Amino acid sequence: MIYLIAALKGLVLILLLLFAFAYLTWGMRRGLARFQIRLGPNRVGPLGLLQPIADAVKAIFKEDISVAKADVFVYWLAPVISFTFALAAFAVIPLGPEGSLFGLDPWVADLDVGILYIFAVAELAVYGIFLSGWASGSKYSLMGGMRSAAGLVGYELALGVALLGPVLLVGSLSLRDIVDWQGTHGWLLVWQFPAFVIYFIAALAEMGRTPFDFVEAEQELVGGFSTEYNSMKFVAFYMAELLHWITASALIPTLFMGGWHAPFGLPEVPILWLFVKWLVFIFIVMWIWASWFRTRYDVMIRFAWGVLFPVALAWFLATAYWVASKGGAV
Amino acid sequence: MSAFDLIAGVLLVASALAAVTLRNAVHAGLALVGNFLVLAMVYFALEAQFLGWIQIIVYAGAVMVLFLFVIMLLFDAKADPGLDPLPWMRPVGAALAAVFFLVLAYAFSRLGPVNPLADVKLAGGLPGPVGELLYGRWLYAVLLIAVLLFAATVAAVVLVQPGVRGARKKPQVAERERELEEVGR
Description:
CATH architecture of the largest domain in chain B: Up-down Bundle
Number of domains of chain B: 2
Strand content of chain A: under 5%
Number of strands of chain A: 0
Order of helices and strands of chain B: HHHHHHH
Order of helices and strands of chain A: HHHHHHHHHHHH
Low-confidence stretches of chain A: none
Oligomer: heterodimer
Largest interface: A-B, 26 and 24 residues
Mean pLDDT of chain B: 81
Largest sheet of chain B: none
Number of helices of chain B: 7
Low-confidence stretches of chain B: none
Number of strands of chain B: 0
Helix content of chain B: over 70%
Radius of gyration of chain B: 24 Å
Helix content of chain A: 55-70%
Distance between the termini of chain B: 83 Å
Largest sheet of chain A: none
CATH topology of the largest domain in chain B: Four Helix Bundle (Hemerythrin (Met), subunit A)
């Protein structure tokens, strides 16, 4: 019975994520158009609201080709890996307190090592991009794949070390414990501001969003890793990319801004407040995307290793010293 | 032996065989990733959660990404079947493998019943209890391993450094000196 409920919750979560993805494509295109003083898709249905459905129909009916120089097995495997692991990461984010979802717990999995789970899934997701770059048999794709692998190693490290501070302070790797801790002690954003900044920057790189979208970089690499993909295989990559955005936008508030707890002493409503914070981060990322330039690839790798990583390490040591002088987690 | 043990064992051996027999180096690398993932599942089944996730993050994730990165960067990923730079390696390898197999078989024959980790006060192998043991009782072992790894890194950097002995010159300077020498002659 437990497994059945977990499976059902997983299914509902996947459907919700896919729905969010569909309307994020619409919201993103309309939003970006606003930033650039144009209209965006507004013809299919009222306000263009049926545009995602039209896009889906178009993508499904496109001919599914495989390029001649491709390594066929890996060429097909790559989008599957990318998409699967992008969907999986959301499972451990708690949306509310215990039993707040019609008597059920509003999360799919409650892992004691939730943060490790998210790291593992995020790293495996990169394989999709990386392998597609190699399997396409194209130089542009290979460059994109290489960039993603090199970027991953640098940014994943900064990401991980940045989270050590909050984890030390809370004394747990479980996302639920981290949210509960913030419920009593206040946002980790206040306690761990440098960690938040580093985490946010590294998360942007992890999502492959501007200013770190060097993996696709259409001006230099045509389309990077996805150059040789079309039809549903391309959509799988596109979905994966947006799902990373969706997941990170829920994860950052969960880790640093109290999760599902209401901000500023407002009444507690489970799920609603996380949704509001999620929308805020979706918008912030879009804002950065619309208004910032892309950093040069070598500059950003150097930034990851030369600035983010040492700063994260120094902050971790400072936190460790503070926690040790207090005699254990707060 | 449960169904899980059987499936995991078959998958482990099959992916390990694929990793050493596949001709395409990237495919072999992927087989190794699969092997690591199954190994992580085995750790989970033994209630060693932390070890399982670390296996995925460090080996299946970071280490294998670097491996594949280098494979993709350096060559066409196709092994050349006609070329065997170390022909004496095969019999030696086979002999060592046979010895290793015998040692393992002997060790297994002497093994008592296996304790699940939960019984050894590790509480499901969570990071807290594992960390207490690792940085408490085994602190010096961990430190020694850290020193060893660091030394290996430094050694690798030193080994690949070209011409550290002579004083370094910029290529332009070296070229100008050569020119001057020729003019002098």
